[in-house]
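Issue: ligand-bound run for protoporphyrin IX containing FE - logging full I/O for the record.

Environment: standard queue, default settings, no custom constraints.

Inputs:
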Amino acid sequence: MVIQETLRLYPPAVFVLREVLQDIRFGGVVIPKGTSIQIPISTLHQMTDIWGPDAHEFNPQRFATGITGACKHPQAYMPFGIGVRTCVGQHFAMTELKVVLSLILSKFSFSLSPSYRHSPVSRMVLEPEHGMTLYVKRHY
Ligand code: HEM
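Outputs:
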């Protein structure tokens, strides 16, 4: 739930791109061949009409009953993309995250340094603009 909520608020891939290969009508909109479309993952992940009034807050509990329980349209949750080009490393990435997090948490506790400035920035992927200084304490 913590990983899912983190990927919701801070999706490493902020958007995905598609190019229209032939003229299509999508809903009521005609999209001409050659149009480049940006699908804004981070925007979809924070829309209040999809996620509720606390859409901008970090609340892992929203995933207590899975993605369908967390939002109105499960397709709007797409940290790994959606459709035929869905991330092939999705399950590997999720397993790796769980293993690494549980190994760290079994040996250490950590908290943010007071010098941390919250400023997520989209470069190649979404990252903390000024880095993330942590206080790390070993469990004995
Ligand atoms: C948290 C980690 C990761 C995130 C958030 C992520 C996100 C994404 C997203 C959003 C796409 C879709 C791009 C699109 O639709 O245009 C994608 C595709 C892809 N990802 Fe990941 N990814 C992650 C980890 C990985 C890992 C660990 C691997 C490889 C071991 C991987 C390999 C790929 C590949 C090969 C594609 C292209 C699939 C295709 O176009 O058919 N990703 N990823």
